[in-house]
Design a protein that fits this description.
- With about 170 residues, this protein is mostly helical.
- It has one domain.
- Helices cover about 70% and strands about 0% of the residues.
- α2 crosses α3 and α2 runs parallel beside α5.
- It is globular, with a radius of gyration of 21 Å.
- About 35% of the residues are buried.
Amino acid sequence: MSTEAPTAIIEPTVQPETLTKEQQALKLTKRYSLWSAGGGLIPIIGLDIVAIIAAQVKMINEISKVYGVEFKEQRAKSLVSSLIAGLGIVPLGTGVLFSAMKILPLVGPLAATVALPTAAGAVTYATGKVFIMHFESGGTLLDFKPEKMKAAYKKFFEEGKDKVATATQ
């Protein structure tokens, strides 16, 4: 019988990696881009678009929290609509068109399943990136001007198509 006191094994603790606000927000943007792409796979016409917009609004809410910016759901929905409209009729119409194509026998669901997820993910990626850019410069939801973000949004949309396509392969 030993009189020695049991010794505790001390394991080194691993400190979690400290991320900047921008890095945290980019992680959220990437995650919600994939969620939006998944929303594009919903087979019910219109429900896919609702799921995509809901993911974008939730993403903006979480990015707002990272930056300590007050979130207002109605304002976020309005801004998302304005940003998408600012891309022009092609991306906006494409999402609605691909959603509606699901009704066509055989070819429709296949075409929609291929194209809508990429477009949805790219739009969500672009949305996240412009909000990060705005919040990084000290902006809020109240002073966000979609028309001033149009060029950056289009650039991020194109970048997002590549990111989503790569992530889903």
